[in-house]
Amino acid sequence: MDSVSSSSFLSSTFSLHHSLLRRRSSSPTLLRINSAVVEERSPITNPSDNNDRRNKPKTLHNRTNHTLLSSPPKLRPEMTLATALFTTVEDVINTFIDPPSRPSVDPKHVLSDNFAPVLDELPPTDCEIIHGSLPPSLNGAYIRNGPNPQFLPRGPYHLFDGDGMLHAIKIHNGKATLCSRYVKTYKYNVEKQTGAPVMPNVFSGFNGVTASVARGALTAARVLTGQYNPVNGIGLANTSLALFSNRLFALGESDLPYAVRLTESGDIETIGRYDFDGKLAMSMTAHPKTDPITGETFAFRYGPVPPFLTYFRFDSAGKKQRDVPIFSMTSPSFLHDFAITKRHAIFAEIQLGMRMNMLDLVLEGGSPVGTDNGKTPRLGVIPKYAGDESEMKWFEVPGFNIIHAINAWDEDDGNSVVLIAPNIMSIEHTLERMDLVHALVEKVKIDLVTGIVTRHPISARNLDFAVINPAFLGRRSRYVYAAIGDPMPKISGVVKLDVSKGDRDDCTVARRMYGSGCYGGEPFFVARDPGNPEAEEDDGYVVTYVHDEVTGESKFLVMDAKSPELEIVAAVRLPRRVPYGFHGLFVKESDLNKL
Description:
CATH architecture: 7 Propeller
Radius of gyration: 23 Å
Strand content: 25-35%
Cofactor: Fe(2+)
Distance between the termini: 30 Å
Family: Belongs to the carotenoid oxygenase family.
CATH class: Mainly Beta
CATH topology: Methylamine Dehydrogenase, Chain H
GO molecular function: carotenoid dioxygenase activity; metal ion binding
Helix content: 10-25%
Number of strands: 37
Shape: globular
Number of helices: 7
GO cellular component, one term: chloroplast stroma
Keywords: Dioxygenase, Iron, Metal-binding, Oxidoreductase
C-alpha cells in the first residue's frame, strides 16, 4: 500500500494506539492498530548486505500523535471522479447500512496479531539458518498461500476475503531465500490501478437483504461504468497451490486457477489466469487431487444453482476431460474438498451451504452462507472414471460435516471405501466463530454393497489442516500429520497419527508444540528420498512456518517425521514475518526447473 493511502486508512478507519510489540532487533517494527498488528516498513533486501547499514524507509507523520511510522515508498494512483464517488457510497454503506457489527467480519478482530497483512511485497531475500542444517531433500521450494488484503478494509471483512499472497522459501544446497508476492489476479491488478477496493467481498459483503441490495447496486454501477468486467474473474487465488500439467497453480474456488512460477533467484511471477485451452470456463476446487500413480488430476466445482456439483478430471498431459454434472446433490452445499481412491471419488454433502430462504435473510440478516440443522449429511461415492452420474451412490452419515479430507482408499476388492477426515463438531460456527470449532478426525468405512457405514474417532484433539505423504494419496496410508487448533484458526503445534491402530486406541504417536505465544500453519510432508519405492512411509520431514507473537519473528521449521517428538532438524529465521495463512506445497527443484 502506498504511503498516502496507508496514512488515510490508518487514521480514518481505525483508532490508533501506538503501543509497539516487544521485538528483537532483527525483527521489523510492528504497529498495533486496536488489536490489529500491521507491518509498516519496507523489507530489507538482503541480511548480509545490512550488517553495517540498514535500508531507511520513508516515514510519515500520523496526524493524531505525530509518531513517525515507517511506510513503503509507493505512489498513490490518481483517483478518478467515478472512483471517488463509488468509494464515498461504499463508505456510507459501511457506516450506516452494513457496518462490521460481528467479530467474524470486523477487521479489528479478524486482522489481529499475525493475521494482519504485510503491506508490501518482499523480493527474494537471504534467510539465516539458526539451528541445524537444511537437508538435501529440501532442494526446491516450500510455498504457502494465504489472504493478504491489498488495501486495509474499510468495512466488513472476513478472513477468507483477502487477496492471495504467496510466501516461498527457496532452498538450494543448504541456503534459503524468502520471497512474498501477491498473485496478480485480475482483481488485484484492477484495484492496484484504481488505487482503491473495487470488487465486493464475497464472504462479508452481503449481510442480509438490505446490505446485499446496496452493495449489489454499487457493484452493478461499477461494472456498467467499466471499472471492471466480472467475465475476467473476481477470484482471489488465496487458498492453496497445486502442481499438475507441468504448471504450478495458485487456487481459489471462486475462479479459474492462476499459473505462477518461481525464477532461479526465488522470485515469484504470475503467468496468468488459465482455462486449459478454453475447456475450463468456470471455477474449480482449490483442492484438486493428483493420482501419484497415473499422473491424472481430479477436480470439481460447486455452485448455488443446479447442478450444484460438477465432477471432472485432467489426463496426465493436463488435458481437461468432459464434465460430469451431479444432479443428485439436491441443495447447494459448501463443498470445499473431496477425496479419491484407486477406483472412486468421494464427495461430502454437509449441513453448511447457501441460505436459500429469502425471508430468513430479511428477518435474520447475516451471511448468505449458513447451516441447515434439518439436513442429514451424506457421502457420495462415484466411480473415478464415470462418464455420467448414473453410478453415483449416496450414504447418510448423521453428524458428519467435513471441510477437508485427509485421504481415502479402497478395501474388500473395491467393495468398500475408507475415508479419513476431520469432522467439524459444531458446523454452525465454521464461518462466524472459528474459535468455537472442534474438529475430530474420524475414520469412516462405507460398504458399497450393503450400504452399511461404520465410523470411529482417531483422536480427541482439535485437529485440522492435515496431510499425508503425497505418494500415498488414494492408497492405504498409515500416517497423518495434523495441525493442533488452539483454538482454530490459531495452530499451536502438530501431531503425527497412526491410523492403523485399533478402533478404540488414541492414534497419536508423536507431537511437537511450538511453545508459548508461538503459532504455526498447515504442516507439509516432504519425503527424504521420493524416488525410492522401498522407502518407509514416514521417512521424511514435516515443514511449516511458525510465528512468535511476542518477538514478532517468523521461522521456517523442518522436523524429522520419524522421531517420537518430531525433532527439529533445522530452523530458519525469516527476514520478515509471514502472516498466518491457508495451504502450502513443496515443489522439488527438478519440477521448479520445468515451469
